[in-house]
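Margin note: ligand = thymidine-5'-diphosphate.
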Amino acid sequence: MSADRGLWITFEGGDGSGKTTQSRLLQEWIEATGRTVVRTREPGGTEVGVLIRDIVLHHRGDIAPRAEALLYAADRAHHVATLVEPALARGEVVIQDRYLDSSVAYQGAGRVLDATEVRDLSLWATGGALPDVTVLLDLDPAVARVRLDAVDKPFDRLEAEKADFHARVRAAFLALAETEPERFLVLDASRSVEELAAAVRARIEPLL
Ligand code: TYD
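Resulting structure:
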C-alpha cells in the first residue's frame, strides 16, 4: 500500500446489528480530524448499484442462487471500480456497510452455494480488493429481530428469511473472522452504542 493511499473500513454483521449507526459515528469522528470520508454501502453504493439493490432486495419471487450471487458481485465490481478505489487513490477514508464477507455469509453459508466459490467470485469481480479493517458487529439474531421489529419499516425480502438462516449467517461471519484475525475486529453488538463506538475508534486511530 502506498503511503498516501486512503483507508478502507467495512462493517459487517447480521440485519439489525447496528452497522449503520456505528459507521455514521465513525464517519463523524474521522471527519472531525480533518480527513475526507466517503461513506457507502453494498448493495447500492452507486447508481447502477441502486438498480441492482432493487432487484436483489425487492424482487417478488425467487432468484436462482447463482444469479443472486452474481448480482451482488456485479454491484460490488462496479462499486469498487468507480467509487471505492478512486476514493482510496485520492487518499480518502472509505467507510462501507457490507462487502464480500456478506456474500460469503449470506450467499455461501446461508444458501446452497460453496463459500469459497462465492468469495472467489467477489475477488474476481474486484480484482482482489480487500479492506484494511473489517468491523464485525456480532449479535444473536433473536436480539436483532427485536431491534428490527421496533423500527417502523416493512421487512425486505432477506430480512423475512427464517431464524435458522440468520443463525447460519452469524456463524459464517464468526468463522470468517477467525480465518483473518488481522483484518477483523469482532465486537459484541449487544454492548451500548457508545462503548462500541469507542472500541471501533481505538482500532482505527493508529491507522489514521
Ligand atoms: P442492508 O443494506 O444492510 O439492509 P438494510 O439497509 O435494509 O438494513 O443489507 C441488505 C441485505 O442484503 C441484507 O439482508 C444482507 C444482504 N446481502 C447479501 O445477501 N449479500 C451481499 O453480498 C450483501 C452486500 C448483502
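The chain is about 55% helix and 15% strand.
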